[in-house]
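Supplementary Note 3. Input sequence used for the single-chain structure prediction.
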Amino acid sequence: MEQDKALFWGGGWNCFSNFSSYQVMYKGKLWPTSEHAYQAAKFSDEKLQEKIRNAKSAYDAFMLGGENKELRAKNWNEVKVSIMEEIVREKLQQNSHILKKLLETGDMEIVEASPVDAFWGWGPNKDGENALGKIWMKLREEIKTNKENERLENE
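The predicted structure, written as discrete structure tokens, is reproduced below.
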């Protein structure tokens, strides 16, 4: 049932989207969105990274990343999930509103309800990897575990 899920991509949990308007400091630079940071992380060319960082929107950053596939790091497919997790972790740590929203999800499954992306989201058949949703759920569990450990230490 979809009401048992925290959906982002048009759902009520859009702060979890990389396209949401939350700046993130990543690797010493301020990025307009986590999408900008993620797309730039694909490349070692500093001019291209800056072009992506200065893109007017997350969509424009996404398009620049796609248009330059041939310049991506050779091991990109092996490292992309860990890079995404680093960026999302920074976004979470830097934005108290997102932390509040993440905790509000309780035990719900968090899903990027993308109708097209079956890797980061659930894709057109709603049976995709949901890799981005899994990152958010992993971070939520870490926070809950840390809070529980702090509670036990204070007893």
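Strands lie at 5-8, 24-26, 29-31, 109-112. The chain has a mean pLDDT of 94.
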